[in-house]
Design goal:
Layout lengths: L1 H9 L9 H16 L6 H8 L5 H9 L6 H15 L5 E2 L2 E12 L9 E4 L10 E16 L2 E13 L11 H11 L7 E3 L7 H8 L4 E3 L7 E3 L22 E3 L4
Parallel strand pairs: 2-6, 6-7
Antiparallel strand pairs: 1-2, 2-4, 3-4, 4-5, 8-9
Length: about 250
C-alpha cells in the first residue's frame, strides 16, 4: 500500500518528462533516493535498488538528459506539495516559505561549479576559505508532530557557473528568480536572514503580492513620513519634502 501511494504521487511529476522512458528512469532515481542508506551519489542508488552495474552510466546520462525539464519539474513538485500536504504552516491564510544560502565543500578538482568561497562564521572550527558549491534553497514550513519541518521546494547552484559574460545578476536577483520559478498560485511570507534584507528582495516580493520577514541590517536607515508643509505662493521656497525624520535601526 505504501509503494502504491508513492507511485501515485510520482505520477504527478510526469509532465516534466518529454518521454515515457525518461519518466521511468526518473522514477527509478526517486526510488533510490527513498531507500538508500548512504549519500554516495549514483552509486548509492545502484546499491540500494540492486540494479545491474551497466545501469550506472545510464543513470549518469539521465541527469544530463534534455528530456527532463527542470523548470517544469519544479512547478510540478510545488503543485504536488501544496495539493496533497494538508499540514502546511499558514499565517493569515498564507503559507510561510524559508530561504537561505549554503556553502558545501567539495574535494573534486574538476567538478563543475566548484569555486573558492569565503565563509563568514563566528566559529573558529570553520576554515575561512573553502572550495565548494554555493547554493540557495527555498522550503515551505509544514507541521511535523509538535514541531515544524522545512520541506524543500527548490535548490540551485548560484555561484561558479557562468553561461554568459553579460550576466551580472547577484545572489539576491537569483533568489527572486528562484521564488518566481516555483509558480505558486497564492501569496506567501518569505522568511530569511539579514543578508536578504535589501531593496531587491523587498521590491521583488511586493511586486507579486508577497511579504518578506527578516531582520534589518545594522547599517539600515528608515525615514518617517514627511510632515505636510503649508502651501505658499508659486515659486517661493523649496519644493515639497519627500521624507521625514531619519531613524537608524541601531543606535551607537
Amino acid at each position: 500500500m505504501l509503494w502504491r501511494h508513492w507511485w501515485n504521487l510520482v505520477c504527478e511529476l510526469r509532465p516534466a518528462c518529454a518521454r515515457t522512458r525518461t519518466f521511468l528512469w526518473m522514477s527509478l532515481c526517486l526510488a533510490g533516493f527513498s531507500t538508500r542508506k548512504d549519500l554516495l551519489g549514483v552509486t548509492s542508488i545502484v546499491r540500494a535498488l540492486g540494479v545491474e552495474p551497466a545501469c550506472y552510466d545510464r543513470l549518469l546520462d539521465f541527469f544530463h538528459s534534455p528530456a527532463l525539464d527542470l523548470d517544469k519539474l519544479t512547478c510540478a513538485w510545488c503543485a504536488l506539495v501544496f495539493r496533497f500536504n494538508a499540514g502546511i504552516l499558514r499565517v493569515n491564510r498564507k503559507p510561510v516559505l524559508a530561504g537561505d544560502g549554503i556553502k558545501v565543500a567539495k574535494a573534486g578538482r574538476k567538478m563543475p561549479g566548484v569555486k573558492k568561497l569565503h565563509q563568514e562564521s563566528g566559529s573558529n572550527t570553520k576554515p575561512e576559505y573553502i572550495f565548494g558549491h554555493s547554493c540557495q534553497a527555498v522550503a515551505v514550513l509544514t507541521q511535523a508532530l509538535s514541531s515544524v519541518f522545512a520541506l524543500l521546494l527548490a535548490g540551485r547552484i548560484h555561484e561558479g557557473t557562468v553561461f554568459s559574460n553579460r550576466d551580472h545578476r547577484t545572489l539576491l536577483d537569483k533568489m527572486i528568480l528562484l521564488l518566481d520559478a516555483l509558480d505558486l498560485k497564492e501569496s506567501f511570507y518569505f522568511v530569511a536572514d539579514a543578508y536578504y534584507a535589501s531593496g531587491k528582495i523587498v521590491r521583488g516580493l511586493l511586486a507579486h503580492g508577497n511579504h518578506p520577514v527578516t531582520r534589518v541590517k545594522s547599517n539600515s536607515v528608515a525615514y518617517f513620513p514627511a510632515t505636510p508643509q503649508p502651501r505658499t505662493s508659486r515659486g517661493a521656497g523649496a519644493g515639497p519634502q519627500s521624507t521625514g525624520r531619519r531613524s537608524r535601526s541601531q543606535r551607537g
